[in-house]
Amino acid sequence: MRARPGRVTIYDVAARAGVSISTVSLAVSSPHRVRPETRARIVEAATALGYRMTAGRRVGAARIAVAAPFTTYPSYLRRLSGMLRRARDAAVDIIPYDLDSAAAADEPLLDVLPTRADVSGLVVMGVPLGGAARRASRAARIPIVYVDVVPTRADVGGPVVLVDDRDGGSQIGRHLAELGHRRILFVHEPQRSPSYVSAGMLRIEGLSQHLDVTAVAVDGPSSVDDRVLRARTDAGATAIVANHDQFAAAILSRLRSARATAPIAVVGYDDGEVASALDLTTVRQPFEESGRTALELALGLASGAASAHETIRLAPRLIVRSSSMPPSPVAPSGGGA
């Protein structure tokens, strides 16, 4: 197939460089996968023909839309990075859409699909689909993969990738119980709607297997104040578990400001850069792996190779650092008799 007179296409570049159009496309989208001498020949051919090589849509590439509350929770950006790394080794274009947080919505349902007619599949992270969206996806025959959305009877028609939050909470509870804690305070963001199962709810279930749990909701890390410390005192809690590392960081800062004298264990969740910097005990979630797995499922659905009702559970892992451990005993200072 040749271009119309006066219009240079990727076919012309491929013919002049003596390569396939897929190699030309790869030189644009993933140049690290093309040998330097071949890439140089393609660039030379494109320059001679006046063809503008841009990293737009790749020839023959699948398009996968990804919808998540990216700007609300950094964890979804880490999941997206797992997808992007996987996409580098395949002909896949990722189209991200930012959503509102499900926790802040009265009806946390995505009823308008943020997608286009030319997508091969849709990955929805952290927000359940409403009935209208499910019907629209079936009508459009758009395969959907859910990530971090606990399935209910209504959530049918797509595989689910979950990190086992109940187990993550249980690992924290077991660790704190072994250290002698009996009552803890769990700090989380408000959940306005009871119509879906959130990760925080599952973490509380896991914690409650080992400890007495009192939950307190705050609007965000910047809203952590003395009210949280009073709630801990009122509950008789000797440890505070935060639903996210950012909450835990704010709690540690407030404890320092309040000059708390009694040792208080603090545990976060996610294990991002904040946790490492603060030496925070936390639960490490395989975010990048969950994103990569979701993309592979979406591509499998688009090609007919994956099951539409598969649930994949990934295991979190407790990372123990100094924030939950009892302080080391201080040796008495020596003195003369």
Mean pLDDT: 82
Q: Which shape, going by the Cα principal axes?
A: elongated
Percentage of residues in DSSP E strands: 15-25%
Instruction: Please provide the ordered H/E string of secondary-structure elements.
Output: HHHEHEEHEEHEHEHEHEHEHEE
Q: What attributes does this structure have?
A:
alpha/beta, 11 helices, 12 strands, 37% helix, elongated
Structure description:
Helices cover 37% and strands 17% of the residues. The chain is of the alpha/beta class and 337 residues long. The strands form three sheets. It has a six-stranded parallel beta sheet, with helices on one face. Helix 4 (74-87) links the parallel strand 1 (62-68) and strand 2. The radius of gyration is 25 Å and the shape is elongated. Residues 1-5 and 329-337 have low confidence and may be disordered.
Which secondary structure elements does this structure contain, and how are they paired or packed?
Blueprint: H1 10-17, H2 21-29, H3 36-49, E1 62-68, H4 74-87, E2 92-98, E3 121-125, H5 131-140, E4 144-147, E5 160-163, H6 165-178, E6 183-188, H7 199-208, E7 212-217, H8 226-235, E8 239-242, H9 245-257, E9 265-267, H10 273-278, E10 282-284, H11 287-303, E11 311-314, E12 317-319
Helix pairs in contact: 1-2, 1-3, 4-11, 6-7
